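Morning F.,

Quick status update on the modeling queue. The single chain you submitted on Monday has been processed. Sequence for confirmation:
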Amino acid sequence: MFDEKLLNPFIATTWIWGAMILGLTLSPLVSQLYDINTSSWSYSPNKPINWPPIELAIAISQVSLGGVFYLIIMLKLIIHKKSNHIDTSYKNEIRLLIAIIITIYVALGNAYWNFLYNYVYDPHLAGFIGNMILIIQNGMNPFLYLTMSKHADIWIYNSYFNVTCAHGQVQVLNCITDKGTQITIGTDEFWEDGMRYSCRNQSTMPEKDPEPEGSGFENTHFAEECDRGEPVYVREHFMISCEKHEVIGCIDAYGDVVKIGYFVAERNRLKYCYVYPNGRKARIENKGCFNGSRDDDPEDKSLHITKYKIWQQGNFDLRCGDDGISIYKCYIGTTNKTVHTGTAWFDEHDVLNVCK
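Structure tokens below.
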């Protein structure tokens, strides 16, 4: 919501405002009278300022504004996730919701001590309710620790990185294998289930998303298709209008055009296309592989395969890699023995077989 230059003055202002209220409360203008027998307090009626209504107005206005800002921040986070297609859990929103609930509770507590207690006819019950409000309010520390916990700011990015937000940037904490094993940054080689992983040169994520495939535009002045009078041309899966100089959409392996949504490129590579409303900007995100046919809907997430996943299909172990779906291993006959792609062998009938 705030960048670092605005956040520090904002925090300083809140401390200054709180110090002013504290100073006014302790000044001769406002005196609090404490009753030890009832463990309660009141205000001296002989002071020049009628403090209770002022205190109520300040408390309710501050808490209400705080609740409004919490709601704005939460909505901003949700809109940011949806507009940038970030598929993560809503931990930050849940923490803000807890903060909003605490804010409303504090506002009700202030309202009770200032005038709501007058509607409780039994003074002992009124004091009991008021003290319970304070006890519960003081017991909210664990929930405040939850909302402020740094560990709650850790999330998984792009399926293979544990990241957190620090100093205004998204920073990588470690890498993750397909089985969830965490790999320390700086590891050049780590093997698990026959797969080689590395976690190096990734100490900090960029401030913005990595430059997507084929992002940006080619000047249509140099597009031969436009010079030949054709209405559109295609570059890096983007279909672009020669007349309007806008991106029409993303073109899949079958020639179909998608403006927003999943589509399938060559070798069953799964991608996500998003064309911004003005058409002057678009992006393509790599989403792994698509284990379906042309007749299947690319939006069907049951057919989505995460990158580097290995699974058995018929007599083959298939693997989703950078180049799409490829054969990883072959099964020999009806046995469970497998050989890697590129391996040749003779079967019991002296027939040469090649895994490819």
